[in-house]
Amino acid sequence: MNFGFTASQQQMRDAVRYFAENVVASFIPQMEAGEFPSALVRKMAEQQLMGITIPKTYGGTGRDFISYIIAIHELSKVSAAAGVILSVHTSVGTTPILSFGTEAQKQAYIPKLASGEWLGAFCLTEPSSGSDAGSLKTTARRDGNSYILNGSKLFITNGGAANTYIVFARAEGGITAFIAQKSTPGLMIGKDEKKMGLHGSKTVFITFEDMCIPLANRIGEEGDGFKIAMANLDGGRIGIAAQALGIADAAYQYAQAHHPNIQLADMAVSVEAARLLVYQAAFLRSAGQQCGKEASMAKLFASKAAVAAATECVRQIGRNGAAERYFRDAKVTEIYEGTSEIQRIVISKHLAKGMGI
Ligand code: CAA
After folding, report:
1. CA separation for the pair 74, 207 (Å, rounded)
2. Residue limits of the Acyl-CoA dehydrogenase/oxidase N-terminal domain (predicted)?
């Protein structure tokens, strides 16, 4: 099913698929060795993928959200690491500035992020607050026309490679969002996490020690931070759902190509159902409609489908070829950008408000 994709969306899908199969695939050995693929990010920028949803006035490609989800899906079929680099850069690394920033912030940061000259990251999770994001402890003390940030952030995707960091910290008026640059004194990048999967994606610990951020880099007002984080996670979760869909799709196709059998029918059904949920959420977001519930449904289901498909793929084929990579890459889609339990909470809150199915 093509979901009524426009000719331009189909053309873009074919181009990203070609790029993924012919260029992204050649970076897999390097990524599996644990290296962040900077050269691949440059090639993704040449393909105009890094600013895909950013309006042309800010140097982006000006495509719709559906096109972006198609791109994450296609990239993730070949490399889930490439998928998450783009997803975090776009959904939560760049969009908060576009949606909530001042014109001056947009002019200063978006064109470089959209061109791929800069990479974006998002600093919400802390050692003692992951799922309960509202209990974060990093502080932002107002000091004249600046804020002084102290605290630490955990599991920061693109951390170290990124030039800009959307940081959430507790100011007097509540959780507040800021833009920090890698070069800001007091921003210290820790060691790379040794992960089970997504070896090409960087994940680091970050510490802020008396990091001074100008007032001009505050996004919105004091106290707006939690809503800014949540609103951008709606889009982010569709991106991760598309990444999970890519892994599920790839595991299914791999198993089907190596060992077609009747048990793959269940896998095919859940991949197809995941596809419907992911693109339903993407269509809503693209149309500017509320999609929090649908985003969480898509992420909850697609991540489960990815784990199930990758598990079945390994069960049937063993650890040969890409099968074990799908297996290692799939699990985190049930954990980051809100665990499956968090998605259930979000869905239940929407259902309780009468936003039924
Ligand atoms: N859009 C806008 N506003 C929203 C919103 C949304 N989607 N969701 C909630 N809000 C608002 C609510 O309206 C509410 O506003 P009021 O106070 O004015 O009524 C406020 O935010 C608080 O909302 P809740 O009462 O729902 O908040 P909560 O504390 O009960 O919990 C939660 C919310 C869903 C559990 C939340 O803490 C959450 O999503 N946790 C998971 C965090 C997460 O996903 N982290 C991912 C880190 S990023 C990452 O993983 C990137 C990566 O590396 C790949």
Report:
1. 34
2. 6-117
CA 197 – CA 91 distance, rounded (Å) = 21
Q: Assess if CATH 3.20.20.60 describes domain 232-352.
A: no
Active-site residues: which are they? 337
Strands 120-123, 139-143: pairing kind: unpaired
The reported pTM is 0.96
**10, 2 contact by CB (below 8 A):** yes
Q: Is 230 in the pocket of ligand 1 (CB under 6 A)?
A: yes
Q: How far apart are CA 192 and CA 43, in angstroms?
A: 23
Helix (H) / strand (E) containing 203: strand 203-214
pLDDT at position 1 over 60: no
CATH of the domain spanning 120-227: 2.40.110.10
- Evaluate if residue 321 carries a pLDDT over 90: no
Indicate the residue type of 89: H
Fold of the domain built from segment(s) 7-115: Butyryl-Coa Dehydrogenase, subunit A; domain 1 (1.10.540)
Per residue in 65-81, pLDDT tens? Answer: 999 999 999 999 999 99
Contact 77, 240 (CB under 8 A): no
Give the CA distances from residue 229 to residues 274, 283, 301, in Å, rounded to whole numbers and listed in that order.
25, 21, 22
- The ipTM estimated for the assembled molecules is 0.94
Question: CA dist 138 to 154, 187, 225, 272, 338, Å?
Answer: 12, 13, 12, 42, 19
Out of 124, 176, 230, mutate this one to test ligand 1's pocket (max ligand atoms within 8 Å of CB): namely: 230
